[in-house]
Amino acid sequence: MKILVINCGSSSIKYQLLDMQSDNEFDLIAKGIAEKIGLPAGILQYAPSGKDKIVRDLPIPDHKVGMALILEALTDPVTGVLNSLEDIDAVGHRIVQGGDFFSGSVLVDEDVLGKIAFCSDFAPLHNPAHLLGIEAITHVLPKVPQVVTFDTAFHQSMPSYAYMYGLPYEYYEKFRVRRYGAHGTSHQYVAGVGAALAGIDLQNSKIITCHLGAGSSICAIRDGKCIDTSMGFSPLEGMVMGTRVGNIDANAVIYLENKLGVTPDEMSVILNRKSGFLGISGKTSDCRELDALAEGGDPKAKLALKKYSYDIIKNVGSYVAALNGVDLIVFTGGIGENNGRLRRHVLESFSYLGLKVDYEANEVHGETSIISTPDSAVKAAVVCTNEELVIARDTMHIVRKL
Q1: Residue 38 pLDDT exceeds 90
Q2: pTM, whole model, 2 decimals?
Q3: In what order do the strands lie in the sheet with 13-20?
Q4: Considering only CA atoms, which of 71, 39, 67 is closest in space to residue 136?
Q5: In the predicted model, is pLDDT for residue 377 greater than 80?
Q6: Confidence class for position 40, pLDDT limits 50, 70, 90
């Protein structure tokens, strides 16, 4: 079954085309990204497996045009990998926010579209873009079934005492204000792969997964199900991130609004786009650049990195308590998969649990592997996330039942 996996952002469309025979038998046919959608100078990247990447600079005015360009690349007579669009059996979409409506992937219909639209208030930068992606596929491939996979679905197993805020209960009833989490597809995938890698039974385990990137979240997983996660109502809550503030006293936000004379929407931009690594360092939101600045002696870069590692340690520690122990700690995401220094610093903080770092193995970059010693009481691993594969698997199972 040939499945096109789509991940629409506000100004981009990431995609993968996979040929799925079963959950563990599949071929990646091609992947790429359409970037800078709606800007004067767009970029289309197309990479057929085993061949050179093709990059085109051209205007991409909207998501419909972006989707059309992607499909044209896949069916190009010379460099394409499909004979025609009829070769596509199904399309799977990543959706950031599904509220508490969805605990798993579902087939797209009008009711599902309405609920995704309702949740746009919870994820205004993401859900509207996802809807544009679905609309674009419907326009070009009206007869092809579409499936949506939600970043929030994996976290629906959280108990109410973990997801409720201490607000008047009627705000939850009327406005659905609660903690939803994010990166659920990634947390679910790396927990399963990490458990298999470490020789641990996922259904009888205590696992903490750390998805670390421009956006970062940590998840406590008992017996394969999420019991808590660091992000909340939106991806703003939790640890400090690339441009997001993370946890902050709500009174500090009100205080700053008054002092700065800004609107709530303007304050939202500060909290989401101008804070985090960028806000503290005053120079960059990129962890790699922060590392270079810190090595050069930049005190604010050092502070940003120290706070980041401290936030990770604090969250992991709280989840050790919530789980009453831990069998495995997993790192994933752009930073988690590539920053050995950060992993080492975090893991050394849990030596009291009998966790022993394999320092040579921990030098790995972008490779799935165990990074704890064989005699370590708690296992640690790096797992390269593959959200697209999870989406493709769910899409395959749902479409096969039609």
Answers
A1: no
A2: 0.90
A3: 54-57, 43-48, 26-35, 13-20, 2-8, 90-95, 146-150, 106-107
A4: 67
A5: yes
A6: confident
pLDDT digit string, tens, across residues 106-157: 999 999 999 999 998 888 778 988 998 899 899 889 999 999 999 999 999 9
Q: Which band of pLDDT confidence, cut at 50, 70 and 90, is reported for residue 8?
A: confident
* Residues 371-392, mean pLDDT to the nearest whole number: 96
Statement: residue 39 has pLDDT above 90: no
Query: Is 358 one of the annotated active-site residues of the chain?
Result: no
The token duo for 135 is: 């609309």
Assigned token pair, 178: 């609660």
Express each pLDDT in 241-267 by its tens digit: 999 999 999 999 999 999 999 999 999
Which of these is catalytic: 27, 52, 151, 223? Answer: 151
The answer to whether residue 186 scores a pLDDT higher than 90 is yes
CA distance 173 to 165: 12
Instruction: List pLDDT tens digits, range 152-172.
Output: 999 999 999 999 999 999 999
What's the gap between Cα 37 and its chain centre?
21
- Alpha-carbon span 337 to 367, nearest angstrom: 7
Contacts of 29 (CB under 8 A, 6+ apart): 2, 17, 18, 19, 48, 49, 81
The rounded distance, in Å, linking the Cα atoms of 79 and 266 is 46
HEC readout, the chain:
CEEEEEEECCCCEEEEEEEECCCCCEEEEEEEEEECCCCCCCEEEEEECCCCCEEEECCCCCHHHHHHHHHHHHCCCCCCCCCCHHHCCEEEEEECCCCCCCCCCEECCHHHHHHHHHHHHCCCCCHHHHHHHHHHHHHHCCCCCEEEEECCHHHHHCCHHHHCCCCCHHHHHHHCCCCCCCCHHHHHHHHHHHHHHHCCCHHHCEEEEEECCCCCEEEEEECCEEEEECCCCCCCCCCCCCCCCCCCCHHHHHHHHHHHCCCHHHHHHHHHHCCHHHHHHCCCCCHHHHHHHHHCCCHHHHHHHHHHHHHHHHHHHHHHHHHCCCCEEEEEHHHHHHCHHHHHHHHHCCHHHCCCECCCHHHCCCCCEECECCCCCCEEEECCCCHHHHHHHHHHHHHHCC
